[in-house]
Input
Amino acid sequence: MNKMIQAIMTAPGNIVYQDVDIPEVQPEQIKVKMKRIGICGSDIHVNHGKHPYTNYPVVQGHEVSAEVAEVGNKVTNCRVGDKVTIQPQVVCGKCYPCTHGMYNDCETLKVMGFQTIGMASEYFVVDAKKALVLPKDMSWDHGAMIEPLAVAVHAVRRYSGDMHGKKAVVLGGGPIGNLVAQTAKALGAEVVLLSELSAYRLATAQKCGITTVNPNERNLLDAIVEACGKDRADVIFECIGINPTMKQAIEYARKGSHIIVVGVFGDLATVDMAAVQDHELSLLGSAMYREEDYIKAIDLVAAGKIEFETLITHRFGFREFKKGYDTIDQEKDKAMKVMINMEK
Ligand SMILES: [Zn+2]
Ligand SMILES: [Zn+2]
Output
């Protein structure tokens, strides 16, 4: 059996490289050669031992681009040589969410790189139906950005797939907040205002064509009224997962506004539920994505509506995974998307 190198996190912050067998390709599977892996906030939690649903050892890697190297004899959706990205969800297909088109909410959801093996290896063997073919002219880097963009597309579509005439406020200018703002605009939003404290992330959002506010420098409510008019925002996206921004969302929402909860909360939020009731706010969670979100994400990128390049702040080789994490710890807000080149 052929061997390949795999990066294994044996304990928080400790990555070892091992020679492992390349699994055999089953009739409905493909083998892909990994090209790029993006590191996201959840990966960073795993690196710090702070991810509540991940045990060690773990093979990470869920934001990827890859080239199809081999296909099983029953595979019809892709061919050898195709550029693909892989949906990292492993679902049961039988529970209520799975049988009602909401497999991202599968009762026994496992995500590659967290509860099941991720893609940080030279090759990866996976069910072909998890692969989505990317346009030939899309770069490997951008292919690996489709996953976080799908998170953003899903979040915006939790409110509406057609944002024409809508006014949106995005709280948080990390990679997801930035991409939510870009997606809302791409889907037609009339106004998008992004609130963020980091000067670096504000500048990044501006480079991506997004209107911004720093609530430490300006009263946020005033800025919302100035951008959206006296009726404020139709929808507010909370993209950090902390109490202060959740409070802002509820306090500054118009009566009847929607609030989409995209951020991952590490702690309990204490929010004003009386305002949620009295102001008839719609509080909606958004978790990962489904295939249609990936397809929409690929379409938006192909249409030139998403700026990825500004978000990719650092690049490292496969053997430099740890350096990538160390850089994130050192650079903090200045590390937006760290990209691992699996061929270096
Ligand atoms: Zn991620
Ligand atoms: Zn299920």
Summary: Residues 91-92, 94-95, 97-98, 106-108 surround zinc ion (ligand 2) (CB under 6 Å). Residues 76 and 249 are 45 Å apart (CA to CA). DSSP finds eleven helices and 17 strands in the chain. The longest strand covers residues 29-39.
